[in-house]
Amino acid sequence: MKNSSEENELLNLNAKQESDHLLDNDIDVTSDRLAGVDVSKSDEEKDSLLQKNPAHFTKHSQHLKNTLINKAKINRANLSLKIESGIYRQSAGSSFSPSTPGQSTPKPIHVVVFLKEGTDYKLYLEKGKLTTAGEIKTMMIEKLKIPDNAKHFFAIWLISQHLELQLKDRHIPFLLRKQWHDLLISFSYCEEQEAILDEPVLVFQRSSFLNEKDEEKVSDDVVTKRLFEEARHNILNARYPVPVSDAEMLGGILARIDEGPYDESIHKPGYFKNLLSKYLPQYAFSTNKIIQYFNVSAEHRLFARYKEVSDRSKETCERTFLNYCRSLPFYGCAFFKGIISIDDKTLWRSPEKNIKIGINRHGLSLFKSSKDELIIFLPYDDISWGLLAKEDENGMDSLCLEFDCKKQTQQIFIESKQARMMDSMIESCVKYMEKLKIPKTPTSLDYSKLSDISFSLEKKTQFSLSRPFKIQ
Core-most of 24, 381, 414, 471, by most CB within 10 Å? Predict the structure, then answer.
């Protein structure tokens, strides 16, 4: 049975945070007002759903059982909050105190926080369900021995297969977990049944607001290792789509890191035949197991790249891999989903196309959802943007991007449940550029790549973008 005083304390604390005018103005992708209302599905509703649709539950359970953070299994038993018996006693020197005199203090709990490669850390939270993301991040920084000058490199994320949210230090993960169903319905594209059964986990990873120039100023091995593991995850899972030749080069580096120097007595033809997915993204080799068995070309090229870097140290390889990723325009992006209209009246083509949008400190990257392929990178100083509210309750908000192409203004309309999240993040990044007075970056964009997804102004109702930010 829930402790009512503890629940009230959670709500009181959240209300206090809402009114605190000293809080930072970074992007709040979840909307703070959602954090204090518990409207998630009850256990009874979940049980009822499982009885009605056992096949779905079996499939979903199997997926969760095999869920990987960079191909490492997650122990679901560790994901639930384990509340210890007894009442929390305030320790000497602690700054925490109940919001109302006479209330019982929260019970301590255990939580598990994952790294990108799947390693997990079990944390004991003395403040229990009142523990903030910032306090959890501090505990992870201490455990990993990350230096003070790199603390801002990382953040706590709440991640599932349907939604990824970077938490502010003041956010309370327990409250957001209670609100997870509503967040999925508001910001993801999963079905109701999937939303009920979805299980997010806490992940310690790179902040999406970090600039790679700041990264390069810190040479600490622990920090480099953390950033490398995340970059490796994004390359192998095609979140960072790169040319196949580059993927093979990076695969050779990964083989050197994992296998050590090349040894012809060990690394014979066929050695990597069943390990290709460990070193290459799927698009770099066939996903058909039968073809993989007979097609040795991918393995042959991986061997060649492996031999080229065999004499390098592991640390040098990690830095080389990371520096390559930093050169990508979409490095460090937060990713969103959207739908765009196609300027094509061909009957056999759908008038809409699903895309993925990546946003970082430098601009927006548009990707094809059906393929692991970058359409174009749009730096902030080449475009303007605006948020269009949905026209009816069944519609979606739209993010409009405007740019000049061949002396004509073009617009792209991206319909998305995450449009407001994208709008907030862009605004935060632009403020960052203005604060640091970042100069205009010369570009030579090939806007012809956008010919089928953009519209000239005479084809759409004209409107004035509320926050244009072309840098003159």
Answer: 414
Question: Which three-class secondary structure string do you get for 108-137?
Answer: CEEEEEECCCCCEEEEEECCHHHCCHHHHH
Which letter does DSSP use for residue 283 in this model?
G
CA–CA separation, 113 and 111 (whole Å): 7
Domains in the chain: ranges and CATH: 109-208 (3.10.20.90), 221-327 (1.20.80.10), 334-450 (2.30.29.30)
| Cα–Cα distance for residue pair 201/178, rounded to 1 Å | 13
CA-nearest of 166, 210, 209 to 187 is 166
What separation in angstroms does the CA of 10 have from each of 38, 98, 128, 174, 325? Answer: 11, 10, 11, 10, 41
**Residue 337: pLDDT over 50:** yes
User: Coil, helix or strand for 375?
Assistant: strand
Question: How many angstroms separate the CA atoms of 324 and 250, rounded?
Answer: 9
Predicted confidence (pLDDT) per residue in 231-252, tens digit: 999 999 999 999 999 999 999 9
Higher pLDDT, 209 or 104: 209
Dist CA 410 CA 117 (whole Å): 41
pLDDT of residue 119 exceeding 50, the answer is yes
In sign, the C-alpha dihedral spanning 309, 312, 313, 318 is negative
The band of 393, judged by pLDDT with boundaries at 50, 70 and 90, is confident
The percent of the chain in helix, strand and coil, each rounded to the nearest 5, is: 40, 20, 40
Inter-residue contact 276 to 332 (CB < 8 Å): no
Rounded mean pLDDT, 345-354: 60
Q: How confident is the model over 434-451, as pLDDT tens digits?
A: 777 665 554 445 555 555
